[in-house]
């Protein structure tokens, strides 16, 4: 008999974050902050989506306060942020859809 629905991945098989320091000082000081190791990919992507939304909102406000030359650079950045958020949100939707499908298959 061929199994139509695959088994869900074993616990701990889904991707997790690795320790990743950031926030180095230009004066040569070591990084002050770090992404914690062991955070599930889904949770990390939720945070990334939130940070991208905040970056987009901040950039939109900055567009109102700068000259026309700088506004073009901010718009270019906003488009990149929007594309990154679209990718992150699509990954989140895919992860959540697959989780629901696995639950329904049980």
TrEMBL record:
InterPro entries: DUF3077. It comes from Pseudomonas wadenswilerensis. The lineage of its organism: Bacteria, Pseudomonadati, Pseudomonadota, Gammaproteobacteria, Pseudomonadales. This is DUF3077 domain-containing protein.
């Amino acid at each position: 008999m061929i199994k139509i629905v695959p088994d869900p991945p074993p616990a701990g098989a889904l991707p997790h974050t690795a320790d990743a320091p950031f926030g180095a000082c230009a004066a040569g000081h070591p990084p002050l902050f770090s992404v914690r190791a062991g955070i599930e990919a889904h949770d990390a992507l939720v945070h990334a989506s939130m940070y991208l939304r905040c970056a987009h909102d901040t950039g939109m406000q900055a567009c109102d306060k700068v000259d026309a030359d700088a506004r073009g650079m901010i718009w270019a950045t906003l488009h990149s942020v929007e594309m990154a958020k679209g990718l992150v949100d699509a990954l989140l939707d895919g992860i959540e859809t697959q989780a629901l499908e696995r639950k329904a298959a049980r």
